[in-house]
Design brief:
This protein is of the alpha+beta class and about 170 residues long. It contains four helices and nine strands. It has helices spanning about 25-35, 50-65, 105-120, 135-140; strands at about 5, 10, 15-20, 70-75, 80-85, 90-95, 125-130, 145-155, 160-170. The strands form two sheets. It has a six-stranded antiparallel sheet, sandwiched between helices. The protein has a three-stranded antiparallel sheet with strand order 7-9-8, with helices on one face. Helix 1 (about 25-35) crosses helix 2. The longest helix is centred in the middle third of the chain and has 17 residues, at about 50-65.
């Protein structure tokens, strides 16, 4: 897969531009982050209003200014998801359900994982997913992540407890 990096930290693949967050991403992000279906495996409830999504976007903009490791996935200039470090050494991804099953997350991870290792000193990346999320588990395994363990009742979301499956990927040698 061909990839290139630009001066602003963005990465490019055959179909995608992976870049830092921009204010104009807000509407597309809110549409996804307020969607119960899109958020069914996420660690929070769907966003109740644009202000909640704006807070998330503002945190991502601030993070990008410090460390360019959490990317906005764009297709033809439009935001369709996120991929990269969410906190510490934990990697994650969110994709607009309208774009599921088209290989976009895999295409993004193929260039983001090497970039994250290159831009950080992390010896290992971790992922925490809902064990019911078979698609995310398969994607992580495709890139060499291995499941390390599971834990019960790790997230209390809307008064309901959810479990976690943890995955790890060691820095390539």
């Amino acid at each position: 897969m061909s990839t290139s990096k630009s001066a602003d930290g963005a990465l490019r693949t055959a179909r995608l531009v992976l870049r830092g967050p921009k204010e104009h991403d807000l509407d597309a992000m809110h549409r996804v982050y307020s969607d119960p279906y899109a958020m069914r495996y996420w660690a929070t409830l769907p966003h109740p209003d644009r202000a909640t999504t704006k807070e998330l976007l503002d945190r991502r903009i601030a993070h990008w200014a410090q460390q360019q490791t959490n990317f906005q996935i764009t297709l033809d200039g439009a935001w369709i998801g996120n991929v990269g470090l969410f906190t510490g050494h934990e990697i994650g991804f969110m994709l607009d359900p309208a774009h599921h099953r088209k290989g976009y997350v895999s295409e993004a991870l193929a260039v983001v994982l090497p970039a994250v290792f290159a831009r950080t000193g992390h010896p290992r990346l971790m992922a925490d997913i809902d064990p019911r999320n078979a698609a995310s588990a398969a994607t992580l395994r495709k890139f060499g992540f291995r499941e390390t363990h599971r834990a019960k009742n790790t997230y209390l979301i809307g008064g309901v407890w959810f479990d976690s499956a943890y995955f790890a990927l060691d820095r390539p040698t």
